[in-house]
Amino acid sequence: MTKKPFFFVVDDDAVTRLMLCRFLEQLGYVTLGLTNGQEALSALENGLPDVVLLDASMPIMDGFETLAIMQSRPDSKNIPVLMITGLNDDDSVDEAYAAGAVDFIPKPIHWAMLRNRVRYLLKDIEAERQINLASIVYDNTSEGIVVTNAKGIIQSVNPAFSIITGYFPEEVIGKSMNLVSSGRHNRAFYKKFWESLMVSGRWQGEFWNRRKDGAVFPQWVTVSAVKGADGQCTNYVGVFSDLSALKESEANLLYLSGHDTLTDLPNRHLFQERLALALTESKERDGGVCVMLLDLDRFKVVNETLGHDKGDDLLVRVGRRLSKCLTQPSTLGRMGGDEFGVIIPRFNHSQDAARIASAMLESLKKPFPIDGEEVEFFIGASIGIGLAPSDGEDVKTLLKSADAAMYHAKEQGRNNFQFYRNDLNTASMARMLMESSLRSALEKEEFVLYYQPQMDLSSGKLVGAEALIRWIHPMQGTISPGEFIPLAEETGLIVPMGEWALRTACKQMKKWSKAGLPSIRVAVNLSGIQFKQPDFTDVVFKIIKETGIEHRWLELELTESIAMGDVEETFHKLNALAENNIPLAIDDFGTGFSSLSYLKRFPFGTLKIDRSFVRNCPQDAEDAALVRTIIGLANSLGLTVIAEGVEEEVQLEFLRKHNCNEIQGYFYSRPIPAKEFANFIKNNPVMMDED
Ligand code: C2E
Ligand code: CA
Ligand code: CA
What we know:
The protein has 691 residues and is of the alpha/beta class. The protein is flat and about 110 Å long.
C-alpha cells in the first residue's frame, strides 16, 4: 500500500479506545479516535477511513445504527466495518453480520486476534487496489491486449489494440481471433502454437497479423492461458507489442544485465537500475535508501608506477574487500575507473551508514601485497553518502548529492566519509567519539550506580531501590543512560556493562549490610540483549555467590521485549531465576502492548507502570483510566504494582486511592549516589519482614 491504512476507532470507553489506537499505531497505521456514532458520521466528511472499528453499544448512537447509516451513503457504503461486540453471544454476532459488518471482535479484546483480523482485511483491500491498478495498466499500456474465451472468441480488447489493428472494440468483441489473422502461418505453425499453450500455458513468438485496412504486419506476441479453479482453461490473454521496439529493449536488457567484466560487479547501468528500483520501493514503504560513492585515493599512483595490470588486479581485490563489509540486500557496483558505489535499500538510520562506511575504510587499511614486488601497497578511499528522500528522491539527484559529499570527503584530507547533509556529519562525529570513549569507560571506571528509593504507599516505608547507571565522563560530566544505553546495545558493550552493574549493586548491598543498615530489595535493570546471552542465568548466580547476598534482595527488571523471540528459552531462564527466589519485575509496562494475561504466564512478581502514563495523571482522563485499569488487573493477578515517575502529591493521592502498592519518583527522591542513599536508609523507616 502506498499510504498508511487509516482507521476510525469508534468506542465510548476511553481505555479501550486509547488502547486500540495505540495498538493500531504500533502496527504502523493511522488512527482517529471517536466517542460515538454521530461523531464518526461527521468525521466521514473530513476524509474516508480504510477501515472502521465500531463498538456495538454506545450512547447517543450505537454501532448498528451507525453502520446502517454508513451503508445508506454512497461514499461510505464500501468501507469495511469491524464490529466490537461487548456481548459475546451468537445473537449479537449474527446481528453484526446482518447489519453488514465484515467481521467482529469480541470484548475483552484479544490483541493477537485483532491484529490478524485487521491484517486479513487489509489484504483484501490491497487486492482490490491491485485489480484497479491492473485495469489502469490495461487501459494505458502501449501494448495491445486481447482477452478471448476458451474457444478463441474475443471478450475484450484494450485501447492500444484498437490503435494497432484499427478495429474498435464493438467491431471485434464476440468475433473469432481469425478476424485479425494474416493467413501467413501454416498448419504446422498453429500445431506448435496450440501444443505450447496446452503444455506450458504460454506461447511466445513472432506473429503476423492483419490490420483492418488489410495491411499485414509482424508483432511480438505473448499468449497465456488463464485457468479456473478447476484447472480448466477459461480464457486466453494475448499481448502484442511492436517488434522493432522490442528488439531495441532486448538489446538494452542485455546491456543492463552486463556486469563489469573486470570485477564482476554490477556496472553503472545496472547500479542505476537497482537504485531506481530501491527508490520506488522505498516510496511505497515510506522508507529511505542510502547511496555511497567511494573513490580510491591513491589509485592513479598505482597505475602509473606499477602498470595497468597490477592496477586492475588491485581493483578486483578492493571490490572483494568492500563486498565483505556489506550484507544482503545491498548492492556494490563499479561505477567506472576507481570509483565504486553502494546501495543500501530499506534504510532507516544514518548511523548504519556511518558504521558501514567506516567498516569499508577499515577494510582498505590493511596493506595490499603486490605480486612479484617487494613493496606492499596502501590505499585509502573517500566516501560520499547521500540519503533518500532528504538528499534527493530520484537517481540523478541522489547520485549528485553523494558525489558532492565524496568531493567534500576528498577536501577533508581523504580516507574519510562525509554525508551530504552537514548536520549528519556532526552527529556521526559525535557518535563516533562517544562510541570510542564508551569502549574505554569500563576499564577507566567511569560508571557509577545511583539508587532511587521505592516506597510502600500504605505505610510510607522504604521497601527498595532501583539501581540506575550513570557515566561520569571526564570532559562532559554526568551522562544519563538514555544517551548511551542504545549505543551500548548496538555495539554489544551492554553485556559487560550490564554485568558490571549487577555486580556493583550486589557488592553495594553487602557493604550496606556490613555497615549495619537494614536490608532492602535492590532492582537492577537488564537489557534484552543481556538476557538473551546463553550464559545469562549462570552469570547472575555466579555474582550472587561471589558477593554473598541473599537471593530475595536482588530484583531483576526486564521489559516486555523479552517476551518476544524464543519464548521457550525465555520461560526456561525466568523460571530458573524465580525458582531460586530471585524477584522479577516487568519494567515500562504499557509501552509494549503485551497483554497482562499473556505476561501472567511468566513468573513476574512485580509490575512497573511506565512513567509516561503516570506523568499526566490524574489530569489526563485517558491516562488516568489506563493506570486505573492496569492497577486493577495487576492486583487481581496477584502482582505487586509500582508506579514510576511520581513527582507530585496529586499523583500520589490518585495512586493511593486506586490501590497502587508502591511508588518511585522525584516526589520522594531523585536517584542518588550510594553514600547519600545510605543516609536515606538511616533517615527513613524501612519495611521489615515482620511488617
Ligand atoms: P527506567 O528503568 O524506566 O528508569 C526510570 C527512569 O525514570 C530513570 O531515568 C529515573 O531517573 C527516571 N525517573 C524516576 N523518577 C522520576 C520522576 O519522578 N520524574 C522524572 N522525570 N523521571 C524520573 P534514568 O536513570 O535516566 O534511566 C533511563 C533508563 O536507562 C532506565 O529507564 C533504564 O531503562 C535504563 N537503564 C538505567 N540503568 C541501567 C542499567 O544498569 N542497565 C540497563 N540495561 N539499563 C539501564
Ligand atoms: Ca527500570
Ligand atoms: Ca520504566
